[in-house]
Amino acid sequence: MAIPANRWLLDTTILVDLMRGSKLARDWIDSLPESAPTISVITAAELLAGCRNRAEQRAVERELDLYEIAWVAEDISASALESYRHFHLSHNIGFLDCLIAATAIKNGLSLATLNLKHFAPFSDLQVEKPY
Fold first, then answer.
1. Which of 54, 73, 92, 111 could form a disulfide with 104 if both were Cys (CB 3.0 to 4.6 A apart)?
2. 62: three-class secondary structure by DSSP
3. What is the DSSP string of 64-82?
4. How far, in whole angstroms, is CA 93 from its chain's centroid?
5. Cα(81)–Cα(99) distance, rounded to whole angstroms?
6. What is the DSSP string of 21-57?
7. What is the C-alpha to C-alpha distance for residues 12 and 1, in angstroms, rounded to an integer?
8. CA dist., res. 130 & res. 67, Å (int)
9. Does residue 10 contact residue 29 with C-beta atoms inside 8 Å?
């Protein structure tokens, strides 16, 4: 299946960069069509987990409101677990990255990340470092 070039799942690294004030991250995200950016519920949870106070949490929540959230369904969970079985020892891949990769694959989305190494083992995943 061909993955549409304008549909993206944004990895946590992109949103962390954005929340830290990266102009490159903001410019790239702003260049996407309004309907393009999606995040995994995993990314939302990771961003919220990084908040140190209510002000940071409010800023994260405002940013999260701008994206469609892709939820983890049974088929995504099963695929992620299978990938984790195959790759966690050989590639030191974490289960959350397996969930993010499976979410992108199952939803026909390209994955934008700053950490290509984490997603290298997924041959059926279109992954790109966007800036």
1. 111
2. helix
3. HTTSEEEP--HHHHHHHHH
4. 15
5. 8
6. T-HHHHHHHHHS-TT-EEEEHHHHHHHHHT--SHHHH
7. 25
8. 17
9. yes
For the domain made up of 8-125, the CATH class stated in words is: alpha beta
As given in the structure block, the two tokens for residue 63 are 């940013």
CB 83 within 8 A of CB 107: no
DSSP type of residue 125: -
Sketch the domain layout of the chain as residue ranges: 8-125
Is there a contact between 41 and 70 (Cβ–Cβ < 8 Å)? Answer: yes
What does the pLDDT read at residue 35?
72
Residue 37's DSSP bridge partners are 8
Q: How high is the mean pLDDT in each 10-residue block of the chain (131 residues)?
A: 66 97 96 86 97 97 95 97 97 97 96 96 96 95
